[in-house]
Amino acid sequence: MRAIRKTKPGPGLEVCEVPTPTCGATDVLIRVRHAGVCGSDVHIAEWDDWARGRVRPPVVVGHEFAGEIVEVGGDAGDEFAVGRLVTAEGHIVCGHCMQCRMGHGHICRNTSIIGVDRDGAFAEYVAMPASNVIPLDGIPTSIGAIMDPLGNAFHAVLAGDVPGSRLLILGCGPIGCFAVAIARAAGALQVIASDPRSQRRELARKMGAHLVIDPDHDDLHALVVQATGGEGVDLVCEMSGNPAAVAQALRSVRPGGRVNLLGLPPGDISLNLREEVIFKGITIYGVIGRRMYETWHHMRRFLSSGRLDPSPVITHRFPLEGIDDALRAITSGQAGKVILEIGG
Ligand SMILES: [Zn+2]
Ligand SMILES: [Zn+2]
User: Fold this and answer.
1) Distance in angstroms (rounded) separating the CA atoms of residues 112 and 35
2) HSE-up of residue 166 (Cα within 13 Å, Cβ side)
3) Residues of the chain with pLDDT under 70
4) 296 lies in a domain?
C-alpha cells in the first residue's frame, strides 16, 4: 500500500510502498478515506527536539483519520462489520495502570500513539484495536478525520460550566476555532476569541465568536473587562501555548473561574501564582487528548444531531502525495484544518 513514512532520522517525510498491516485478532482493518494533518506531524517532518526524543523510524505517520472497515479480527467483538464507516481514538492505552483503571485513560502511563510510537494513518490501510474504534453513524469521513483535534476542543470546553457562561478562547488555530463553535453549541452566553492573525480571527467570527481581539494591537485585558461588565470571563481555554497568552488567561478570568490549558508553551514560564491563582481562587486544568470515551460520545451526539458543524474550519485538502504542500499550508499560519483525501 502507499503510505507516508518517516523512513530515517532527519527532516522530511517520504511517500512510499509499505506492506499492508495485518489485522490482529482483536483489531479491525480500516481503509482510510480522509486523514487530518496536525502540528505534531509538522514536528515529526521537521525532526525537532521532541520528535528526535520520541519517534523511532521507520514509522508510518498520521493519527487523525476516518475510513471504512475492510476486515474484522476473530476476537474483535460483533459491534463491527465490514463496510462500516469509522474513526478511532489514536491513543492506545494499557487498560491496567492506575489511571486507566480509574477511568482516566487519556493520562495512561503507557500510552502508545499511532503515527508517533507505532504505524499510523497516512496510508491506504491502518489496523486499530477494536476498543479504540468509533462508528461514525452518518457523520461524513471528512469530519470523522478531524474528530481527534475536535475532541481536544470538546475536552477543553466541556471541562467547565459552559451554559450561560462567558468564555475567552486564546489562539484561533483549528482547535481554537472548533472551541468557539462548541462553546456556542453548548450554550455559552458570550464567546470572546483572540489571535494575532487576521484570517484566524475571521474564521473564529465565522464559527460564532461574539467578539474577536488582536492581542498584538488591542488591549486584550481592557476589552475583556469591558465586554464582561467588569467581571472577567468564567472560563478561559488557552489554545496557543504563547507565554503572554497564558498570563492573559490568568488575568482575564474572574475570581473563582477556570482556566483550561491546552496549548504547549515552548519551555518554563513564570506566573504570579499568589495574586492570580491562589488569591483569585481559580482552577487550572491541563487538557491532554480526549476523555475515553465520554468526549467521543458527546462529540458524536453534537455532530450527528447537526448541533455543530465544524466543516468551515477545513480550509485545505490534498492527496496523499501532496503531504509536503499540506505541511507548508500549516506552517504558513494561513490555514485552518488541513486534510488528506486518501481513498474511497
Ligand atoms: Zn493531531
Ligand atoms: Zn494505562
Assistant:
1) 19
2) 17
3) 344
4) no
Say how many C-beta atoms besides its own lie within 10 A of residue 42's C-beta: 16
Same domain, 15 and 139: yes
SS3 247: helix
State the alpha helices, DSSP H only, in the chain.
39-46, 49-54, 98-101, 141-144, 147-158, 174-185, 198-206, 220-227, 243-252, 273, 294-304, 323-331
**Sole residue written with cell 500500500:** 1
Q: What pTM value is reported for the model?
A: 0.97
Query: How many angstroms does the Cα of residue 175 sit away from the middle of ligand 1?
Result: 10
Maximum CA extent, the chain: 61
Using the mean position of ligand 1's atoms as its centre, give its distance from the Cα of residue 149 in Å: 6
Cα–Cα distance measured from residue 317 to residue 81, given in angstroms and rounded to the nearest whole number: 29
CATH number assigned to the domain comprising residue 167: 3.40.50.720
Q: What is the pLDDT of residues 29-71, one digit of tens each?
A: 999 999 999 999 999 999 999 999 999 999 999 999 999 999 9
Contact 318, 29 (CB under 8 A): no
Domain count, the chain: 2
Ligand 1 centre distance from Cα of residue 261 (Å):
16
Cα Rg of the chain (Å, integer)? 20
Q: CA–CA separation, 61 vs 210, rounded Å? A: 37
Distance 210 CA to ligand 1 centre (A): 27
pLDDT of residue 344: 64
Please say whether the beta carbons of 233 and 166 come within 8 A: yes
CA 174 to chain centroid, in Å, comes to 8
Check whether residue 9 and residue 141 sit in a common domain: yes
